[in-house]
């Protein structure tokens, strides 16, 4: 038996990197009976064969996992958001952040296409960037050609499994190609009618980049909060945490309760009003969700 990590999953076959060699594996039939699906990022035990094939016989417990894209044991999510083409969308960025915070994954926000902005757009972008930095997020701003990634992003990749997430057309595949010239991942132009790119990624695969693993992640253009309960949402907004113990009611949800320290912080401009509005939107969305049985 050897131990390794699944770096690619496609049509029921799994590429496992173990001892500097890639084994093309199938999962044990037992997994199907237990309804367990191996995921990219899983640490597994493999029974190898002499022809570089093998069988996955066990899967280590996961630290976390995403459903879309199906990937496990993520340390960091690089959220790519363009300034223009498509326009910067803080509501969508906050949807990503909520899901990522819920999964206990560290976000890195990368804002692209800075060079295509007007002076007014750039000023607004810097205002947003400073708000997110003030909350405690790392924010990087790069140009469309991404010629400064070496110094800006490489230091964040070492010894981590990172996913790249973001709306279609913001430059995720371009970023990966810039990080590693050998990847040659297909990219697509922005659809003028829809204002967004077409998905060009067909499966999940890990790439060794910057002494870490990076995954390109299809299926991230829409996000829902099906796993998040109402009482969990408040913990996904970092800036709320320092105020929640000052609320009058323990377990305050920061919506209708009197003497809520979070709402007071919004009124005092200590918490950005747009972030609180997004919290209210997401709260209502989860509240309206059909019950699951």
Automatic annotation (TrEMBL):
Residues binding GTP: 112-115, 166-174
Cofactor binding, note field: Binds 1 zinc ion per subunit.
EC code: 3.6.1.-
Principal cellular location given in the protein's record: cytoplasm
Binding annotation for Zn(2+): 247, 252, 254, 260
Residues covered by the EngC GTPase domain: 72-221
Keywords: Cytoplasm, GTP-binding, Hydrolase, Metal-binding, Nucleotide-binding, Ribosome biogenesis, RNA-binding, rRNA-binding, Zinc
Subunit structure: Monomer. Associates with 30S ribosomal subunit, binds 16S rRNA.
UniProt similarity note: Belongs to the TRAFAC class YlqF/YawG GTPase family. RsgA subfamily.
Function: One of several proteins that assist in the late maturation steps of the functional core of the 30S ribosomal subunit. Helps release RbfA from mature subunits. May play a role in the assembly of ribosomal proteins into the subunit. Circularly permuted GTPase that catalyzes slow GTP hydrolysis, GTPase activity is stimulated by the 30S ribosomal subunit.
Protein name: Small ribosomal subunit biogenesis GTPase RsgA
Native source species: Piscibacillus salipiscarius
């Amino acid at each position: 038996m050897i131990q390794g990590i699944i770096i690619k999953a496609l049509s029921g076959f799994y590429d496992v990197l173990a001892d500097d060699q890639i084994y093309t594996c199938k999962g044990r039939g037992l997994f199907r009976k237990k309804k367990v699906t191996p995921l990219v990022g899983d640490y597994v035990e493999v029974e190898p064969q002499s022809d570089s094939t093998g069988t996955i016989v066990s899967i280590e417990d996961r630290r976390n996992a995403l459903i879309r894209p199906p990937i496990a044991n993520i340390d960091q999510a690089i959220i790519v958001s363009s300034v223009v083409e498509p326009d910067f969308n803080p509501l969508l960025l906050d949807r990503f952040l909520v899901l990522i915070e819920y999964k206990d994954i560290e976000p890195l926000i990368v804002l692209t296409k800075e060079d295509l902005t007007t002076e007014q757009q750039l000023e607004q972008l810097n205002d947003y960037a400073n708000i997110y930095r003030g909350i405690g997020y790392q924010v990087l701003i790069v140009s469309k050609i991404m010629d400064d990634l070496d110094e800006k992003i490489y230091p964040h990749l070492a010894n981590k499994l990172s996913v790249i997430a973001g709306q279609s057309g913001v430059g995720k595949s371009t970023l990966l190609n810039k990080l590693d010239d050998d990847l040659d991942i297909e990219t697509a132009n922005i659809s003028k009618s829809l204002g967004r790119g077409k998905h060009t990624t067909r499966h999940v695969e890990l790439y060794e980049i910057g002494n870490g693993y990076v995954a390109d992640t299809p299926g991230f253009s829409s996000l829902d909060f099906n796993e998040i309960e109402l009482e969990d949402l408040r913990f996904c907004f970092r800036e709320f945490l320092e105020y929640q113990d000052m609320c009058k009611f323990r377990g305050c949800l920061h919506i209708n309760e009197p003497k809520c320290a979070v709402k007071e912080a919004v009124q005092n401009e200590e918490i950005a009003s747009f972030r609180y509005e997004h919290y209210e939107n997401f709260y209502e969305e989860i509240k309206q969700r059909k019950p699951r049985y």
